[in-house]
Specification:
The structure holds two protein chains of two kinds.
Chain A lengths: L1 E5 L3 H13 L3 E5 L2 H10 L4 E5 L7 H10 L6 E5 L4 H9 L4 E4 L4 H12 L9 E4 L2 E4 L4 E4 L2 E2 L4 H12 L4 E3 H7 L8 H18 L8 E4 L3 E4 L5
Helix pairs in contact in A: 2-3, 6-8
Chain B lengths: L1 H55 E3 L5 E3 L10 H4 L2 E5 L5 E4 L22 E6 L5 E11 L2 E10 L1 H49 L17 H50 L4 H33 L7 E4 H11 L1 H6 L3 E6 L4 E4 L1 H18 L5 E9 L2 E8 L6 H4 L11 H4 L7 H11 L3 E5 L6 E8 L20
Parallel strand pairs in B: 9-11
Antiparallel strand pairs in B: 1-2, 3-4, 3-7, 5-6, 6-7, 8-10, 11-12, 12-14, 13-14
Helix pairs in contact in B: 1-3, 4-5, 5-11, 6-8, 8-11
Classes of the chains: A alpha/beta, B alpha+beta.
C-alpha cells in the first residue's frame, strides 16, 4: 500500500512517515502543495495524507484541483482548524476524512485503515484473541472457556478493543466510538480509565496471561503478545 | 477636522438661506402694502380734485368748456400739476381735455352708469398705455349732464416703490452677512466640543482605555454623546481587562504542562536508561501533551463562545432523562467512591434549550459534585418547575464553597482550593457550564450553607408543553467540537 504524505513541517512529516512505515505502508513525502500535486498526477497512491496549510498552493486548492481532474484517490485531510464550517469546507472540497491536529497517532492509523478498506466493513460476529472469545450476536464473552460477566459498557469496550486488537487505541477513539461522545470534556478520560481498570480486573486478573495493557500517554492495547 | 469645518459652513448656510427667503417674502409684502396704500392715497386725491375741478369748470361763450385755473390758490401744487382731466358728455363726446392730457383719452368711452351715484374708481390706461388711477363722477353743469374724469399717473407710485426697493435691497446683504457671520461663530462654538472629543478619542487606544472624553455640559446632546462614548469605553476597558487576565491565566496554565514536558524530557535524556524507562519517560511526556490538548480544546470552545461563533439549536427536552444520563455516565466514579445518589423529579419538566450544551453543563456540575464529595457521602439532584423556569439542582455533601469564593467559581481558571481537590483540571468546566446555560437564556448559580455541602442550580426557560417522553436520552449528540 502506497501512501503519500503532503506536509511542509519536517518533524511532522518524518513522524508520520516513520509511523506509517512501522505499520507496513510504503510512504512518499511531498513538502509542498505543488510537489504533492505533481506526485499524485504522475504516480499511483492508495491514500494521500494532506495537510491543509501548505506554503504556496494550500491543501484545499490541491484537493479541489485533483477532484476536478477526476482523481479519486482517498484523501485524509490534516488541519489545526476544527470549527464546524472548516470541517464542512474540507469535506466539500473532496476530502474523505478529516483529522484535527493535534491528533493521537493510533487515531491516524485507524482512519488510514478505514479509508483503505472502505466499502468492506468488518462484519464478523466471532472475535477472538488468544484464549479470549467474544460472540457479538449472543453478547457472550469467554476467557479460557470461562464466561465473563460484563456490563453493557464493558462489553462495548472489549468489542472495540478486540476489533482493533494488536493496535493501540487512544482515549479519543474510545470516547468517540464507544461512548459516542464527539466532544472531549473533562470527566471522560477519567471515566474511560475507570472502565478499563474494571474490565482488566474481570479479564486479566484471574489469568496468568495479561491481554489488556495500558500504553502510557497514548492509550490501551489488547494484544496476545502482552507481557 | 475638515468634516467639522464643512458641517459648520453647512449649519451657517442652513439658517442664512431660509432667512434670506423669509426676508424676500417680507420685502415683497412690504412693497405690495405700499403700492396698495399709495393707490388709496392717489384715489383719495383724485376724488378731492374731482370736487375742486367740478367747481372750476365753465362753458365759454363759444360753447367750449374751460377751467378757471386762475382760481387755484397755488398752481404749483403737484395735485394740480400732475392732474389729468377729461370731461365727456353722457353720449361720449369729448367736451374738454386739459393740457397735460393732450389728445390722449382716459379710459375710452363711458360705460353705463359710470359716476352716476357715487365716484367710480378704477385703474385704467391712457390711450398711450400709461397706467393711471381714475376717478369719475357725473354732474350737472350749467344745466348739462357731464362726466368728469380725473386721473393721476401710477408712475408716481412706482417711483416711490423703486426708491424703497433700492434702499431695502442695499441693506439686505449687510443684514444677511452680519447674521451669517454671527451664525458661523455660534456654530463654531457649538461644534467645539466635538473637535475636542475627536482629538481626545484619537489619543485613546487599547493601552489607555481608562482615559475618558471631556464632558462639557452633561445635559446637552454633545455631553450625552460624550457620556455614552465614555460608557462604551468603560465596557471596552472591562472586556480588555478580562481578556488580559484570561490571556495571562491561560499562558500560566499552558506553561505548567510545558514545564513538566521539558523537565521530564531533560531528566530522561540525562540518564542512560533502558528502553522501558525511556518508554515511561515518553509516556509521561505524552500525558502532559494530552493535558495541553484538553486545555487548548477548552480555551477554543470558550473563545468561540465569546465570539458568538457557536450556533445553538433549541428544542424541548425533559430534564430528568438528562440527569439520569449524566448519573449513569458517571456511575463507575460514583461506585468507586460508594456515593449514594438520589435523583428526584418533583414533576415532569421540560426545558427549551440546546440539549447537547446543557448536557455538557450538567455533566460538568455533576462531575464536580462527585469529585468534591468524600467517599460514602451523598449526592441528591432535583428537577422541578419554578414560575416559567425549568430548574435542575444538584446538591453534594462535600466541604462546600466559602462565601467569598461563591461569586467567583464560574470565573475562568478560578480554583477554590487546588490542594484539597487534588485535581489537575484547568478551571474551565464551570466557565463552560455557565456559558452554555447563559447562551440558552438560562441562569446558573450556587448555594453553599456555612455548615458545608453545596447546591448548584441551573434554570432554563421551561418548554410550554411536555413533549413525548424520550426513552433514549442518549440520542442527542454534541455537534460542535
Amino acid at each position: 500500500m502506497r501512501v503519500l504524505i503532503v506536509e511542509d513541517e519536517d518533524k511532522m512529516a518524518d513522524a508520520l512517515r516513520h509511523g506509517l512505515e512501522a505499520d507496513h505502508y510504503t510512504v512518499a513525502v511531498a513538502r509542498s502543495g505543488e510537489e504533492g500535486f505533481y506526485l499524485i498526477s504522475t504516480q499511483a497512491f492508495d491514500l494521500v495524507v494532506l495537510d491543509w496549510l501548505l506554503p504556496g498552493r494550500d491543501g484545499i486548492e490541491v484537493l479541489t484541483q485533483l477532484r476536478q481532474r477526476g482523481v479519486t484517490v482517498p484523501v485524509l485531510l490534516l488541519t489545526a482548524k476544527d470549527a464546524t464550517e472548516d470541517r464542512v469546507r474540507g469535506l466539500d472540497a473532496g476530502a474523505d476524512d478529516y483529522l484535527v491536529k493535534p491528533f493521537a497517532f493510533p487515531e491516524l492509523l485507524a482512519r488510514t485503515r478505514a479509508l483503505l478498506r472502505r466499502g468492506a466493513p468488518e462484519t464478523t460476529n466471532q472475535l477472538a484473541v488468544a484464549d479470549l472469545e467474544m460472540d457479538v450476536a449472543t453478547h457472550k464473552v469467554k476467557r479460557g472457556g470461562r464466561e465473563l460477566a460484563l456490563t453493557a459498557r464493558e462489553f462495548d469496550l472489549l468489542e472495540y478493543l478486540l476489533r482493533q486488537h494488536g493496535r493501540v487505541v487512544s482515549r479519543e477513539m474510545l470516547a468517540r466510538d464507544v461512548w459516542k461522545e464527539s466532544v472531549r470534556y473533562t470527566p471522560l478520560d477519567n471515566l474511560i480509565d475507570v472502565h478499563v481498570a474494571r474490565l482488566r480486573r474481570k479479564l486479566d486478573d484471574p489469568s496468568e496471561r495479561k491481554l489488556l495493557r495500558t500504553v502510557r500517554g497514548v492509550g490501551f492495547i489488547l494484544d496476545e503478545d502482552s507481557a | 477636522m475638515i468634516g467639522i469645518r464643512r458641517l459648520r459652513t453647512r449649519l451657517t448656510l442652513w439658517y442664512v438661506a431660509p432667512l434670506a427667503g423669509v426676508m424676500g417674502v417680507y420685502l415683497a409684502a412690504v412693497l405690495l402694502m405700499l403700492y396698495w396704500q399709495m393707490n388709496r392715497v392717489l384715489t383719495h386725491l383724485a376724488e378731492e380734485d374731482l370736487e375742486t375741478v367740478k367747481g372750476l369748470l365753465y362753458f365759454r361763450p363759444d360753447g367750449n368748456m374751460d377751467l378757471h385755473l386762475e382760481y387755484h390758490h397755488r398752481t404749483e401744487w403737484r395735485q394740480v400739476q400732475e392732474r389729468l382731466l377729461e370731461v365727456l358728455s353722457p353720449d361720449g363726446q369729448i367736451l374738454y381735455r386739459n393740457e397735460r392730457l393732450g389728445t390722449r383719452s382716459i379710459g375710452g368711452p363711458p360705460f353705463p352708469g359710470e359716476g352716476e351715484r357715487a365716484y367710480s374708481e378704477r385703474s385704467a390706461r391712457l390711450s398711450d398705455g400709461t397706467a393711471v388711477v381714475l376717478v369719475s363722477g357725473k354732474y350737472n353743469l350749467e344745466g348739462k349732464r357731464v362726466l368728469i374724469r380725473v386721473a393721476y399717473s401710477e408712475d408716481l407710485i412706482w417711483g416711490r416703490l423703486q426708491e424703497t426697493l433700492v434702499i431695502l435691497l442695499l441693506a439686505l446683504p449687510f443684514a444677511l452677512s452680519a447674521i451669517g457671520l454671527f451664525g458661523y461663530k455660534m456654530a463654531g462654538r457649538a461644534l467645539d466640543p466635538i473637535e475636542k472629543m475627536a482629538r481626545q478619542a484619537r489619543r485613546i487606544n487599547s493601552e489607555n482605555l481608562d482615559e475618558r472624553l471631556p464632558v462639557e455640559n452633561p445635559d446637552d446632546e454633545l455631553g450625552h454623546l460624550a457620556a455614552e462614548f465614555n460608557a462604551t469605553l468603560a465596557r471596552l476597558g472591562q472586556s480588555f481587562e478580562q481578556l488580559r487576565r484570561f490571556t495571562s491565566d491561560a499562558s500560566h496554565e499552558l506553561r505548567t504542562p510545558l514545564a513538566a514536558i521539558r523537565s521530564i524530557g531533560e531528566v530522561g535524556l540525562q540518564q542512560d536508561a533502558g528502553a522501558d524507562q525511556y518508554r515511561d519517560t515518553i509516556g509521561s511526556m505524552l500525558e502532559e501533551v494530552n493535558r495541553l490538548t484538553g486545555l487548548v480544546d477548552n480555551l477554543l470552545t470558550l473563545s468561540r463562545a465569546d465570539a458568538g461563533h457557536i450556533t445553538l439549536q433549541a428544542s424541548a427536552f425533559r430534564l430528568m432523562p438528562l440527569l439520569e444520563e449524566a448519573a449513569s455516565l458517571l456511575d463507575v466514579l460514583i461506585e468507586d467512591k460508594t456515593l449514594r445518589v438520589n435523583l428526584v423529579e418533583e414533576e415532569p419538566v421540560s426545558a427549551l434549550a440546546d440539549r447537547s450544551y446543557i448536557r455538557q453543563a450538567v455533566l460538568n456540575i455533576f462531575h464536580n459534585a462527585v469529585k468534591f464529595t468524600s467517599a460514602g457521602g451523598a449526592i441528591s439532584a432535583r428537577v422541578y418547575r419554578e414560575a416559567s423556569w425549568a430548574v435542575l439542582a444538584i446538591t453534594d455533601t462535600g466541604p462546600g464553597i466559602p462565601a467569598e469564593h461563591a461569586g467567583r467559581v464560574f470565573e475562568r481558571f478560578y480554583r477554590v482550593d487546588e490542594a484539597r481537590s487534588g485535581e489537575k483540571a484547568a478551571g474551565l468546566g464551570l466557565s463552560i457550564a455557565q456559558w452554555a446555560v447563559r447562551a440558552n437564556k438560562g441562569e446558573i448559580g450556587l448555594v453553599s450553607p456555612p455548615q458545608g455541602g453545596c447546591t448548584f442550580w441551573i434554570r432554563l426557560p421551561a418548554a410550554p408543553c411536555e413533549p413525548a417522553h424520550r426513552a433514549d436520552g442518549r440520542h442527542s449528540r454534541l455537534t460542535v467540537s
